[in-house]
Amino acid sequence: MEKVTDVVMVRGEAELFERTAHLFEAATEISCAARDLHTWSVAHPSAPEREHSVRGMTVRKVYQPGVLIDPALAEHLRMMAASGARIRITEREINETIILDRRIAIVAGDHVAGVRGYTVISSPALVQGIESLFEAAWHGATDLESYQARFTELGAREILEQLGSGCKDETAARALGVSLRTYRRRVAELMELLGASSRFQAGARAREAGLL
Questions:
Q1: How far apart are CA 12 and CA 24, in angstroms?
Q2: Cβ distance 180 to 169 under 8 Å?
Q3: With contact defined as beta carbons under 8 Å apart, do 99 and 131 qualify?
Q4: Which stretch is the leader sequence (predicted)?
Q5: In terms of Cα–Cα distance, which of 77, 113, 98, 81 is closest to 21?
Q6: pLDDT tens digits for 28-43?
């Protein structure tokens, strides 16, 4: 481990857990931003521990839509929400971060030789800046239940597959068993959901978010 003032660099989740387990155990407020459920697996308790782990705590988590593709991961999110965690979904790029009690920030880095690096930060000024980025992501995201209901209602996954195939609207509508008018309306609504101004941009954002 290399330490520079209030910034500590660690390699791999084993070292991260060793260095920060006591911080997670003592925390009463946790804010988390991640692309999926794997980045911060050290912070995700097993099912029997989950309900107890968030009791009396303030837990906020922001994920990208890709977590909704795998039914098991989607169910995991619903269970966390049922246990008291507040969960939102965003299509925007996010900085994978955990903030503990507004005092400690843990930022995920790149993989090097198959091992991911993490930065543990306790400098108040740096933590405050990272917290501001999280708050912006949080306020721009959509509540899990609302997002998932809309995602399912639109048949978003199927529409994205049709858009990705490059087929004509008439062909896509027949494949989905809906009228051409309904298909085009759902495409427009999906673009709005993704914050896209064109079908091309919708596809690009869906790929960035792990939906394609």
A1: 17
A2: yes
A3: yes
A4: none
A5: 98
A6: 999 999 987 777 765 5
